[in-house]
Amino acid sequence: MSSSAADETPSRLHPPSLLPAAAWSAVALLWFAGGSNYLARTMLTTMRGSVVQDIQVTDAQFGLLTTAFLWSYALASPFGGFFADRFSRKNVVVVSVFAWAAVTLLTVYTRNFPEFLGLRAALGLTQAFYIPAAVALIIDFHRGPTRALAGGIHLTGMVFGSTMGGIGGWLAEQHGWRFAYTAVALPNLALGVVLYFFLKDPPREHLESASRPPAIRLGEALRSLVRPGPYYFFFACQAVQGAVSWIIIGWLPTLIRERFSMGQAAAGFSTLGFLYIAQIVGLLVGGFWSDRFSLKNPRSRIIIPALAILFTAPFFFFNVWHQQLSMMMLSLSLYGVAMGFLGANTMPIVCLVVDARYRATAIGILNGCTAICGGVAVYGVGALRDAKLGLHVILLIAAVGVVVCGIFLWLVNVGVKRAGIPSSPHALNT
């Protein structure tokens, strides 16, 4: 724990005015890369009609295209994190961007379902290496009162990329889905070149005090992470969060459309639009508050998102028995803000509970777990709908999930406190 606790000692806290220019330029560059990452993965869902008509796939096969992405992404994420800990984080980011740009471009030339399926799996594999390396690189630059805000700004790029996924449907409608993939792939290749020349690799904290640091090994990283401690609870929190979020993203537009007799576009905007806008607000506000209050209590990075999640839960329970559109939109907005708070503080929390040498590996494992649980949840809700269970049951599951997520996050706070992380950063020097 000592290597993590030392992260926010006064000697390591860099005021925003004293940060190197590369610290904020890295956030800016990775904002575009994160947006590109999510745009490339989500645009397929908006081009369904064009793809199904051209490739001649069934609905089940089209669903497998997303499943293949999620499974390969989940399986590769821990290794992506390990590579980011073992090698240059910048190089891992750059190679990942070039790789997913190449896969996106190759998709243009697919002629049948097996080829498309293989390339979707390859896209998940190549993108799995980006997020652990990118967030760890940002954390290496931002070691104190800008840590959560910098991470939150980076994540707003991913949210923006998700909302821009609809551009794929528009391009496919106007020029065909192959043109849409080309229009996304070529700028990604150019972005890879920009990152290669302008993205910098910051020094890592655990290397600064060691003359000959030991090599990072996967087995040692996994042994460190499986030791009982607060990381267990954070892992559980992220697993539940992934399941609830994918239920909302994957099914709530359909459920709201059916419950309130809305059009497809209106239902989609009412759910995902409210959710994503609120999440951007949460990422920025939650990051700012966390950075500010963590100067007095490092555990504020855990407490603030935990309270936000638990505050949201009663609104979801209200929707179970009183399904009103206005209350559902309020619930989604509050959940989006809470998830923004959690997203901005995910890597800072990892810094509190994980050895500094294995941060990216820890993030990779969390990403993989979130993808797996999200996929299982989406399938589970489909099974519930086949069993003719109503909206209230699905909302109840989501409400319980929100409570459990908040409880697990609060247990992280309890675990960190019991492990001896001081309540004041000034005490960390003693």
Write up what this structure looks like.
With 430 residues, the protein is mainly alpha-helical. It has two domains: 19-204, Growth Hormone, Chain: A (Up-down Bundle), CATH 1.20.1250.20; 224-422, Up-down Bundle (Growth Hormone, Chain: A), CATH 1.20.1250.20. 80% of the residues lie in helices and 0% in strands. α5 (89-107) packs antiparallel against α6 (113-127) and α14 runs antiparallel to α15. The two termini are 15 Å apart.
Find the count of extended strands (DSSP E, 2+ residues): 0
Overall geometry: globular
CATH class of the largest domain, named Mainly Alpha
What portion of residues is helical? over 70%
Major beta-sheet overview = none
> Helical stretch count?
18
List its traits.
430 residues; Growth Hormone, Chain: A; 80% helix; disordered C terminus
Helices and strands in order, then pairings?
Blueprint lengths: L1 H4 L15 H26 L1 H8 L3 H28 L2 H19 L5 H15 L2 H12 L5 H17 L2 H10 L1 H22 L6 H4 L9 H8 L4 H31 L3 H31 L5 H22 L3 H29 L5 H28 L4 H29 L11
Helix pairs in contact: 2-7, 2-8, 2-9, 2-10, 4-5, 4-6, 4-7, 4-17, 5-6, 5-7, 5-10, 7-8, 7-17, 8-14, 8-16, 9-10, 13-14, 13-16, 13-17, 13-18, 14-15, 14-16, 15-16, 15-18
